[in-house]
Specification:
By secondary structure, the chain is α+β, with helices and mostly antiparallel strands. It folds into 2 domains: 36 residues, no CATH class; 146 residues, tt1808, chain A (Alpha-Beta Complex), CATH 3.90.1570.10. Helix content is 24%, strand content 30%. A 6-stranded mixed sheet has the order 3-6-8-9-10-11. Strand 9 and strand 10 form a beta hairpin. The longest helix has 18 residues. The C terminus is likely disordered.
Length: 200
Amino acid sequence: MGLPLKNDRLDMQAYLDWEAQQPGRSEYIDGEVFAMVGVRRVHATVALNIGAALREHLRGTPCLAFTADMKLRVETVDAFFYPDVMVTCNAQDRRAELFIEHPLLIVEVLSDSTAAYDRGAKFAGYRQVPELQEYVLIDIAARRVEVFRRQPGNEWLLHDYADEPDCRFDSVKLTLSLATVFEDVDTAEDQAPAAPADPQ
């Protein structure tokens, strides 16, 4: 997360009005506005892979999957976030225009600049959503899917799918292969330029 965009603090409605006039997306936390940085190709690819799989899986159900262009409102911490992927089965959210408030699944794809925030302060904010059942972190470099599941007493249990062929999102009863999650994501070797040929 970068530095605040505006020096003056905004209330919720002022933020919504201001952001509607901006070319880019910005998150809002307790009166401060933070610009959303662009993502790398692999980040966008993984988020779309998961979003598409969820969309297809949830077709014909009361649940909807959203990708990064839909805001999440967390009223208890006075914040608006843009999760990479989220799912809601709430009837109010189905009628919402600008933001949803009751997701049961949130997915964030980690990057070097946001990993600490996604694991720390952002997760702390997400935990204030009563309906949230699972928080998923995708580590592209490690080919790892970490699923935090809410337990009784508001405790969270981690299942690390680093060495398994599939991962499972219990909140929506979806089993997804890691091959699908990371489809079309090149390895570091694939991305490296070819070594020059030895001169003859």
